[in-house]
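re the bet — no i am not wrong, look at it urself. input seq straight from the record:
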Amino acid sequence: MSELEKIAIEKAKEAVYLDRQGSREAAIARYKEAIQILSRLISLTQSPVLHEVYRERMRQYLERLNELSDGTPVRTVVRQSTNREELQIEPFKSNIKWSDVIGLEDAKRIIREAIVYPCLRPDLFPLGWPTGILLFGPPGCGKTLLVAAAANEVNATLYTLDAATVLSKWLGESEKNIATLFSKARNEASTGNPVVIFIDEADSLTAQRYLEVGGEARARNQLLKEMDGLANKNKKEYLYVIAATNKPWLLDEAFIRRFQKRIYVGPPDTETRLQILKHYTASLKLSEDVDLEALANMTANYSPADLYNICLDAHISTIREMFENRLEEPRKISMSDFITAIEKRKPSISGELITRLREWEQRYEAV
């Protein structure tokens, strides 16, 4: 199958190149060959993920093949269509405060130095300031919360960019979407207002993939080009790009270098887990036997999101009991409710993931 994939990629690349050059007949022939090979791959693969990848590719090539066969003029510009969806990314203002981010003191300090201090005293930064920040770490550990708090601290406009939003099936549309977003952000930043572009799950947009033809590569290159524009040290605009990923080893090397700050956002330690548990249980009715310190010690490798779900599960168990026994009010949450919730919910962070993230940190960290 690997050989078939390679052949399909080569045929598709040739087809796209010939299509853009205006060689209709040759492009049609290559698209047909790529479609035949993809059809064969679909019949051979047992992986549902690869199955969907092959089907989507084949669908795109069939659409373009039908256009060429119907006599639609071959163009090198973005396809025009009344059915094409325009980019819809609306900015918003965050109301998350630094106090809502429990723990992560090192990450908060670094972000303050890069974003908050330059906004307060730009005269103290003759060499400029970091405009690219990469947050990497296990899922559910507060990366998005950090971005929202930083944006709120300087009253910045926040744009969220992800692969599902900007990648398009139309030729040339993905890179146009990225350029449009950055243009809007630059126009706003030029008025003196801070702007943050948050790239969520950056690996889905910037990773080097084996099976990609044109579209993803052009979108990735466009993003790199836009970020190069932010690095102009003669500009003193408050326009920042913050990216977050759970799998930094998938990122393109050129993309990594665009970030002056690369910060590991790891799982909470015991003291931070205790503070998180106190935060989530503050509005709950707890029995006297509940020992939050003991629970904090029992939940190593649990993310803040996991801890929230444990508190939620323990609380819901008392509500379930109330309805099943037709009681007037739920009883207080006991220690056994929390222990049962922990036993039924395994940590989302594995030791293997932490090891791999730490290895990547040793190579690429920049704080």
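see?? The chain is about 55% helix and 5% strand. told u. also Residues 249 and 360 are 7 Å apart (CA to CA). so pay up
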